[in-house]
Amino acid sequence: RNMSSAGPEGRKKMRECDGLIDSLVYYIQGAIADHEPNDKATENCVCILHNLSYQLEIELPESYAQSIYMQRRNISSNDKTPGCFGTRSRKVKEKHQDTPLPEEKSNPKGVESLWHSTLIRIYLSLIAKSTRNYTQEASLGALQNLTAGTGPMPFAVARTVVQKANGLPSIRTMLHANHPAVKKTAVSLLRNLSRNTSLQNDIAREVLPDLVAVLPESVPGSDIACETTASVCYTLYNLTQSSSHNARLLLSADGLPKIIAISMNDSNMFSKASRAASVLLYSLWSHTDLHNAYKK
């Protein structure tokens, strides 16, 4: 577990180590099957996999990277260069988001397991069944790592989490966790998921009211709470930016007074949270059909 956080070279060596990742996955599967999601060894295994999934897409061996980005190039070359404005660039982005998960094999080995849907489901199962904070945080963090970035893999993993593995209910529960780091990681994962335009309505329907509920009444004092609040605001920004329906959902969840209060916090004008809330307010105002509702 310590070695897996030693940096890029350490991660690379461990990913290449024959049988190591397979053994970790095998152990966790056994723990879940035996209804023992809270043992210390399972926590260690998940924390190692969390670390090995960090910057995975960037650090993948060339053979994998080529197959992923070859698909991406083929998609892009079918369209003319998208302009700065209009729906064209959005269409290219949405097409790109439909790229299949790279090399999804029925019996993954080694590094292939790290992005495989089997392990994605294991993480979601641990989030739902484990009561150990470190296990929950590492499972959420691994999914956060896998959904970071703009390549085909993050978008495909996001689609698996939301649509194929029905992971939102488990993630939503973690928004109300007592442990600040677990809550922060759950929000960061949702922020990554919410960048995928094809999933935004599903996410808004399932978790938008909960996101509003975890917003504080004003800018919080601690750094971790401030970062969490900023992440919530940017997630809400993603969900409402191009959807008047989702903006109305935010309004009906009584989100506006909280967001205004966070944006206007005088004692900490330049905090991440205040800035994020201001960006969100500016975006919400772009829905002209809601101006009367906002004013009320």
- Overall form: elongated
Relative strand content: under 5%
Order of helices and strands: HHHHHHHHHHHHHHHHH
Straight-line distance between termini: 54 Å
The largest β sheet comes out as: none
Total strands: the figure is 0
How many domains make up the 3D coordinates?
Answer: 2
Overall mean confidence score, pLDDT: 86
Low-confidence stretches: 75-99
Class from helix and strand fractions: mainly alpha
Rg (CA only): 20 Å
**Number of separate helices:** 17
Helix content: 55-70%
Keywords: Cell adhesion, Cell junction, Repeat
Main location: other
Biased composition (Basic and acidic residues): 95-107
Subcellular location: Cell junction
Summarize the structure.
By secondary structure, this protein is an all-alpha fold.
Structure characterization notes:
Residues 75-99 have low confidence and may be disordered. The chain has 17 helices and no strands. The protein has 2 domains: 1-65 and 107-167; 196-295. α8 runs parallel beside α11 (180-193), α12 packs antiparallel against α13 and α15 (255-263) crosses α16 (272-285). The radius of gyration is 20 Å and the shape is elongated. It has helices at 8-16, 20-33, 40-52, 56-59, 62-77, 88-97, 117-129, 133-146, 152-164, 168-174, 180-193, 200-214, 223-240, 244-252, 255-263, 272-285, 291-295. The chain has 296 residues and is an all-alpha fold. The longest helix is centred in the last third of the chain and has 18 residues, at 223-240. It is 67% helix and 0% strand. This is PKP2 protein. It comes from Pachyramphus minor. Keywords: Cell adhesion, Cell junction, Repeat.
